[in-house]
């Protein structure tokens, strides 16, 4: 079975071969990529700068909305073929672009080309995937996900996996995961929500609340805060990739594709090329709290007029009276049932 890493290595080998064989005269030196799926894909070097380019031929109607710079280091150019229903997409790195992430991006797009034997469908999937990569660069920049966001994302995935293991149907767990789209809480099951906070500090004594809506349950039947305290070390614990693959295996097929696109929009490529890809998380302690009317937090109705961009921290020691069993919170995380 082909793997993303094998494709990534294949691409780098093609670019290296072109680099050795091409001359120094200005121009584009190109090779077709073998076994690239339904769509014809090409790897190129553009001289004299030696910048890498990835090109693919698609159905023109699928890419009518594509014509933008994808990030500080990458540019997408659409070349329409005169009097034909096809177009060629050229994805080219710019000077200073991250070498690793560009190869991963191209390998991921080749995997999409292999996903369907129908040219029109493969073209549509390919262009949709480029949109997901655009969101990746918009959210994280060319250098990828930050350490703080990486830790927070692992915690959300750990919570999702725990919900599924506790009996939440996997489609419901994925549908409820609204953190990536900017919802107030990370998981929303109708009128019940769960906010997840993860820390890899030596002690987890407080949590940072980035906006007043995160712990405002005034419009909800139930709101819970789940806190995950972890060790984060190289070559130890459960890596992001392992956790991601476990969830993909449970979701299966079409759902796993949607899940991976969501991760991409959060800045997590596949394979993981973040600086902490080989680091793993070991859970030290998990805590859950019911956020009721007496929970120590700031609510929207408490904020005076004129106050904006509010963020604050909550000391967990002040929340002991609100502590509940983590397993009970996660097992009740589903649609249409009483929390």
Word description of this protein:
The chain is of the alpha+beta class and 339 residues long. It has 2 domains: 4-140, 2-Layer Sandwich (Yope Regulator, Chain: A); 147-331, no CATH class. The chain is 33% helix and 26% strand. It has 8 helices and 14 strands. The protein has a 6-stranded antiparallel beta sheet with strand order 1-2-3-6-5-4. Strands 7, 8, 10, 11, 12 and 14 form a 6-stranded mixed beta sheet that branches. A hairpin with a 5-residue loop joins β5 and β6. This is PD-(D/E)XK motif protein. It comes from Lysobacter arenosi. Pfam families: DUF4420.
Q: Classify the beta-strand content into a percent band.
A: 25-35%
- Determine the number of helices (DSSP H or I, runs of at least 4 residues): 8
| Rg calc | 23 Å
Order of strands across the main sheet = 1-2-3-6-5-4
Main sheet makeup: 6 strands, antiparallel
Question: In terms of per-residue confidence, which ranges show pLDDT below 50 for 5 or more consecutive residues?
Answer: none
End-to-end gap? 43 Å
Number of domains: 2
Q: Which structural class do the helices and strands define? A: alpha+beta
How much is the average pLDDT?
A: 88
SSE order: HEEEEEEHHHHEEEEEHHEEEH
Give the helix level as a range of percent. Answer: 25-40%
């Amino acid at each position: 079975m082909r793997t993303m890493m094998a494709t990534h290595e294949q691409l780098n080998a093609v670019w290296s071969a072109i680099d050795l064989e091409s001359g120094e005269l200005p121009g584009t030196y190109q090779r077709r990529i073998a076994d690239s799926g339904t769509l014809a894909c090409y790897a190129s070097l553009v001289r004299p700068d030696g910048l890498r380019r990835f090109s693919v031929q698609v159905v023109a109607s699928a890419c009518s909305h594509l014509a933008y710079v994808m990030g500080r280091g990458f540019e997408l150019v659409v070349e329409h073929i005169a009097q034909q229903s096809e177009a060629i997409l050229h994805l080219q790195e710019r000077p200073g672009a991250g070498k690793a992430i560009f190869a991963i991006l191209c390998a991921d797009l080749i995997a999409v080309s292999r996903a369907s034997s129908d040219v029109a469908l493969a073209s549509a999937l390919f262009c949709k995937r480029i949109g997901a990569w655009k969101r990746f660069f918009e959210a994280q920049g060319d250098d990828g996900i930050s350490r703080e966001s990486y830790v927070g994302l692992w915690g959300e995935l750990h919570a999702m996996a725990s919900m599924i293991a506790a009996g939440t149907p996997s489609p419901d767990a994925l549908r409820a995961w609204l953190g990536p789209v900017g919802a107030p809480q990370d998981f929303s099951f109708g009128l019940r929500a769960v906010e997840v906070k993860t820390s890899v500090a030596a002690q987890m004594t407080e949590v940072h609340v980035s906006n007043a809506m995160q712990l405002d349950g005034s419009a909800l039947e139930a709101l819970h805060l789940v806190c995950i305290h972890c060790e984060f070390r190289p070559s130890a614990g459960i890596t992001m990739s392992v956790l991601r693959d476990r969830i993909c295996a449970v979701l299966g097929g079409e759902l796993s594709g949607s899940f991976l696109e969501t991760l991409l929009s959060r800045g997590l490529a596949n394979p993981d090329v973040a600086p902490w890809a080989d680091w793993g998380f070991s859970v030290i302690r998990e805590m859950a709290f019911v956020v009721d009317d007496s929970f120590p937090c700031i609510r929207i109705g408490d904020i005076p007029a004129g106050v904006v961009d509010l963020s604050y921290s909550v000391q967990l020691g002040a929340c002991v009276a609100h502590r509940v069993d983590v397993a009970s919170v996660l097992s009740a995380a589903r649609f249409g049932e009483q929390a």
